[in-house]
Amino acid sequence: MSLLQEPSAHAATTDTLTQHPPPESNPPPEAPPDGTPVTVLASEVADLVIENGYRFGTRTVCVEQARAGTQVSVLDEHGAKIAIVPMTDIRTARVEPLVGGGRLELTTTEGILPLVAFTASQAARFSELARGIEQLARGEELAIDLKPQQTRCAKCDRLLPERDGRCPACIKRVAVLGRILSYIGPYKKRAAVVTLMALLGTLSSLAQPHFTRLIADQVLDPKQKLTWEQGFPLLLLYVGGMFLSVTLAAGFEMIKGWNIAFLSGHIAKDLRAHVYRSLEHLQLSFFDKKQIGAITSRVTQDTDRIWGFLVDGVPYLVSATLMLAGTAIYGLLMNWKLTLAILAPVPLVGIGAVFFWRPLSLLFYRVSSKWGRFNTHLTESMTGIRMVKAFVQEDREQEKFDRRNGDLAQAGIEADRRWYVFMGAMMFFTSWGTLINWIYGGSMVLKGQLTLGTLLATQQLLWQVYGPLQWFAQINQWFSRAMAGAERIFEVIDLKPEAYDRPDAVRMPHVEGRVCFRKIRFGYDKSNPVLKDIDLDVEPGEMIGLVGKSGAGKSTTVNLLCRFYEADAGTLTIDGVEIRKMALEDLRRSIGICPQDPFLFSGTIAENIAYARPDASLAQVMDAARAACAHDFIVAKPDGYDTQVGERGAKLSGGEKQRIAIARAILHNPRILILDEATSSVDVETEKKIQQAIANLVAGRTTFAIAHRLSTLRNASRLVVLEKGKMVEMGTHAELMSREGEFFKLVKTQQETSQAIALSGE
C-alpha cells in the first residue's frame, strides 16, 4: 500500500459533522507524471475531508486500472493523488455510518484504513462504490450502478418530490390527460353517446336565442303593427319552439349525465384496480422505503380526484367548448361586428388561465403530498393505538397529528386562496362582454343598424359563452387536482414490477426441494452485507435449523429463498435451477412460510387457514388445524371456525395467531417449509404439541426453521450457526454441543437466562 499522504484515522461511529458550506465539484483526475496510462473504472467525489475531525472539502475516490494492476486512489481538490491502495492489499470495503454521514473504510493487509468521509446525501453512492471495490478485490467483474440520483429537475432545476422522481411542474398535462382518457377504450360506445348528446344539447340551447330574436322582431316590435288575432298565434308558435328546445336540451343533458356517471365510475374503478395491481406486484424494497399511509392515499384519494374531474370537469369542458364554437358561429351569422366585439375579452380569459395554471397545479400537488403524510400518521397511530395507550402517549400523538393537520390545512388554504383570486379575475373579465354588448350593440340599435331582437338574442348568447368561462376557474381547479393525483398514480404504475411474466422463465410446477446456496452475499446496505459467502447444500426432506444471535442473518437467508430480495453475489438454486430463472409464481407456490409475526386478515378463522387454498374443504381446514394443535381452542370458541379474528387477528392471543399461521402453512402443503420463530409466542405445553406437529409435517419436505428456543431444534437434521452473516458452525444438535463452540455458548447463555428469570419469579 502506497500512501502519499495517509488520511487521518481519527474517527468514530458517533462522530458528528460540523456544518460548513458545500464544496465546489472536483476536477477530473490527472494522468500520472510518468505518463503511465490509467483507466478509471469507477469514481465518486466525497464532500468531507478527514483532517483533525471533519470539515467540508472534496476528495475523489477512483478505482483505476493501471499498468501495475487495479488500484484505489484518493485525489485532493486539485487532482493530486494523496493515497494509492493496490487492489491486492484490500480484503474488504465498507461504509461506516456516522451521525449525519458516513466513512468509506478499507480493510487491508495492514489494518483498517479510513479512506474518505461524506455527508448522508452521498451514503448510497459510496455504498455502491464499496461493493464494487469488494467485487474487484475478490477477482469478480465490476458490476455496480453509479448512475447519479436526480434530486432536481434537469429542465427547471426545481427540487424533486422524491429522488429520481418526476417534476410536477414539467410533466405535460395534456399527455397525462390523454393517458387517463385512454381508459375509455372499453367503453367507446358510451363515450360516443356522451359526445352526441353534448352536440345535440348545444344545438338545442342555440335554438333558444333564435326564438328570442323572432319573438322580439316579428311579434313584439311595434313596427310590425300586429293585432291580437295575428300576433298571439305567432307568439304561441315561437314560445312552443322555445319550449321544445328547452325540453330537448334537458333530455339530452339527462342522457349525457347518465352515461357520464357510468364512464367516470368505471374509469376510476379501472384506475384503482390498475394501481392496486401494480402495487401488489412491486418488489418488497419499494414498501421498505414507502409509508403505508402514503401508498394507500394513491389508491383512494388520488383516484377519487380523477373521478371528480371526470364526473364534473370533463363534461363541463366538452359542453363549454361546443357551446363556445356554436355560439361564435351563430353570432357571426347574425352580426359579425357585434359578435367580434363581445368576444374580445375571451383571449384575456385564456391568458389569465395560462398565467395561473402552473402555480395552481404545483399547489395542488403539494396538497396531495400533505394528504399522503397525513394519512400515514393517521394509519400508523390507529394501528398502534394499544402502544399509544400503554405508554400514555396520547398527547404526543395529538401534537404530531395537529402538526400534520396544520400543514395540510395551510397547503389547502394557499391553493384555495390562489383559486379564488383566479375566480375573481375570471368574473371581472367575463363581465366586460355584457358591457360591450349594451354599449356597442345599443348604439347600433339607436342608429338603426341592428334590430332589438338581434340585440336580445346576442345578450342571451353572451350568457351561454361567458357563463361557462366564469366557471373555467372551477374546471382548472378540478383539472389541477386530477393531474396531481394522476401523476402520483402513474408513477406507481410505471415502476418496474417483480418478474412474474418473464417469457424465458423456467416453469417448475413441482419441485423436489433440493436447495443450494453458493457464495451468497447480500446486504440491505450494499456495502454492509448481512450475509457473507454462505455455502449450504440442503437435500430434499432435510430440516435445517438456523441459529444465531439477533441480526446474524437468519431471517434474511429465508427471505432470499422466497426471492423477496435478490442476492448481491453468488447463486441460489432449487433443484439445480437458479431461482432468478424460475417462474416466480411456481417458486412461491412451492414454499410455505410461517413468519415470526403472523399476520391474519379480517375474516373468520377458517378463511385465514384456507388463505393459500381458498377452495379447500372444511375437513381439510380442520385437518390442518389439528396438525398445528389449533383445533381444540378453535372449537372451544362459541362460533368455532366461523369466529371473526378481527383486524390483524386482534381478537386472538399471540399463541392462537401463531398456531393458525402454522395451520395455514400446513394446508398450503409446500415442498419447502419455512418456520421463522414459529413457536416464539406459545407456552411450553403448546410448544411441545407443535414440536410433534412439526415432526409429522416436515416428513418429505425441505424445512428451514428459526427458533429462539434452541431446544426446539433438537430434531433438525442439521443446525447452521450464523455469526455476523457468516456460517461458523454446522452439524447436529449433539455434535455442536460436544464441540463446545458458538452453539454451545448460545445454549448455555439461554439456560442461564432462563434460570435467572425463574429465580427472579420466585
Question: What would you note in describing this structure?
Answer:
The protein is of the alpha+beta class and 762 residues long. It is built from 21 helices and 17 strands. It has helices at residues 123-137, 173-181, 188-220, 228-280, 284-289, 292-334, 336-342, 346-383, 385-390, 394-446, 452-470, 472-493, 554-561, 584-589, 605-609, 618-627, 631-635, 654-668, 684-697, 733-739, 742-761, and strands spanning 39-50, 54-66, 69-75, 81-86, 90-98, 101-108, 111-119, 515-522, 531-538, 543-548, 569-574, 577-578, 591-594, 672-676, 702-706, 718-723, 726-731. The strands form four sheets. Strands 13-14-15-10-16-17 form a six-stranded mixed sheet, sandwiched between helices. Helix 19 links the parallel strand 14 (672-676) and strand 15 (702-706). The relative contact order is 0.06.
For the CA atoms, what is the radius of gyration? 36 Å
- Measured distance between first and last alpha carbons: 61 Å
Count of β-strands: 17
Characterize the biggest β-sheet: 6 strands, mixed
| Average pLDDT level | 78
The fraction of residues assigned to DSSP E strands is: 15-25%
Query: What does the oligomeric state look like here?
Result: single chain
Helix content: 40-55%
Structural class: alpha+beta
Uncertain stretches of 5 or more adjacent residues = 1-31
DSSP helical segment count: 21
Which sequence of strands runs across the widest sheet?
13-14-15-10-16-17
Overall body shape:
elongated
